[in-house]
Design a protein that fits this description.
Largest sheet: 5 strands, parallel
Number of helices: 14
Strand content: 15-25%
EC number: 2.6.1.16
Structural class: alpha/beta
Function: Catalyzes the first step in hexosamine metabolism, converting fructose-6P into glucosamine-6P using glutamine as a nitrogen source.
Organism: Sphingomonas vulcanisoli
Bound molecules: fructose -6-phosphate
Subunit structure: Homodimer.
Helix content: 40-55%
Catalytic activity: D-fructose 6-phosphate + L-glutamine = D-glucosamine 6-phosphate + L-glutamate
Oligomer: single chain
Distance between the termini: 31 Å
Radius of gyration: 20 Å
Length: 364
Amino acid sequence: TKGNHRHFMLKEIYEQPIVVAQTLRAYLRRLEGTLALPTEDFDLASVKRVTIVACGTSFYAGLVAKYWFEQFARVPVDIDVASEFRYRAPVLEEGGLALFISQSGETADTLAALRHARAEGQKIAVVVNVPTSTMAREADLLLSTHAGPEIGVASTKAFTCQLAVLAALAANLARAKGRLSPDEERAIVRHLSEAPAALNGALAYDEAIQEMAPIIAAARDVLYLGRGPDYPLAMEGALKLKEISYIHAEGYAAGEMKHGPIALIDENVPIIVIAPSGPLFDKTVSNMQEVQARGGKVVLISDYDGIQAAGDGCVATITMPKVHPLIAPLVYAVPIQLLAYHVAVAKGTDVDQPRNLAKSVTVE
Ligand code: F6R
């Protein structure tokens, strides 16, 4: 049931601290400060390349994970949406791990891609939320998210749980490759363990986000900008807004603005900038100032330091807790989900059952 919440989507957004903690429990030994996988008998050390395939929100989780696999494990990563992957001629060499991400474990294109990869000799890993699903049964390495049933059509808690599993997997792979010292492993475990409390901190801005929702609800088009792992998050924010509020939105890499999309900017196009303070902050802020100089109305999502440094001149700011960069994508997912939610409620759309969409896409 929805409990005290008006919609399943809101309930599921609020469940994230608990279900992410629940999920992480299967992948970390917090007291020992070590990583773990649900199974010991999968040979990660021999993985030479990772090919990630998924659809929609699960694909964006995969895009974030690409940064982690490269950064921690130094393993090359290919990634594609399932509907494209299965109709190209992907080069799948020996020693490849094909990784499929799916809340339902039933998405037709992702499942077909899995079978194709298996036929091409890849080892198959899946990140799924339904342990009895077809993908779960067909995997060599089953990595469950423990988000519980997700009812709202727009994926929320499954996404943050996918990110938690993928971060742990990337770190496990790094360890198997001899690229993680015990100290580094302990630090990663500590950072991941801080995610549930940080998610709670992010939820505290619900009311502030609700108050600024009318600015977005009045727009015809909205842009989301981010860099690094916040770039896929920008695309996820745009997808969330499109699917439940029916407002046209696009996510862009902040540095790509001047290569075309900046032509769209005027005072009618709100721009949501996702920029936790950190190594990429100044770069993103300079792109943000370029759109402000053209009259663009910016909503900046950052932490206290980021808002202090760059919040002036924004139409609104959303302050996130200060977190380690590893968990920032999980934490910053919350305000983009809440923003889409409140905009949809302001517009009076059917939040849990948006038009034309199905929870599980079992046809091509
Ligand atoms: C967006 C959304 C969809 C799904 C996509 C994949 O909010 O829910 O984009 O993420 O249909 O579904 P799964 O993860 O079940 O394969």
